[in-house]
What we know:
Number of domains: 1
Low-confidence stretches: none
CATH class: Alpha Beta
Helix content: 40-55%
Strand order of the largest sheet: 1-2-3-4-5-6-7-8
CATH architecture: Alpha-Beta Barrel
Structural class: alpha/beta
Order of helices and strands: EHEHEHEHEHEHEHEHH
Mean pLDDT: 95
Radius of gyration: 17 Å
CATH superfamily: Metal-dependent hydrolases
Bound molecules: nickel (II) ion
Largest sheet: 8 strands, parallel
Shape: globular
Amino acid sequence: MWLDSHCHVSAEGFDDDRDEVMARAREAGVETMIAIGSGYGVEGSRAAVELARERDDVFATAGVHPHDADQLDDAGRAQLRAWLAEPRVVAVGECGLDYHYMNSPRDSQRQVFAEQVALARELDLPVSIHVRGDGPEAYDELLEIWIAEGAGEVSGVLHCYTGTRDFAHRALDHGFDVSFSGIVTFKTAADLREVARSLPLDRLLVETDAPFLAPQGHRGRRNEPAWVTVVGETLATLHGVRAEEIAARTTANARRFYRLPSVEGGA
Ligand code: NI
């Protein structure tokens, strides 16, 4: 069975047919989805939290995306704490640094990421991390903040990894897990596939990041959790193992990372 470790199924792009999308995920063998709350404004986590309350196969995260960092105020901070106190809200995030789009100024991105790492440490929750930049700055600064605010006491996953092989291995040394999305399936992503091949299977997660980044064979369409299998099949080819093994191992890794309650017959 598969686990989509990062998707935005609570986003409004799924409002018209969410039940059908979830049913297709289940048919494809996706037993659990992590609905990432952030990325749709500071209030965006509300929909993810509500979906996780309603469905046994969904857990949520709550956080503030770097794009929205300059919108966070004290009311937003109080609301975030309230969401993170809920039992089916399993991580802080996604949060981090995005120096590619730069939708919020760097200073507020750094401040709001540091705050969320500190909050995760205080609440004993893992962190889903978004990092993107056109050079090394975003990655280097992310690691500096991580070390300053929580290294060793907080676990983090680098979601939708597209960075260098060197940084991925530095991140492993700092205890991060690494998650791959449909980007690793793109024809143009040979370098990223080499990064994925170089990482140990006990540190890898798979995700769709739906509705974004539909994998090869579905590109240009709205992505959905069922297609996490395409990401997993690519990792299977790279590591020379069967897709079932990638499913079992990435599901176990994600269940460990998000500390999900054990399930009967679970991977
Ligand atoms: Ni995302």
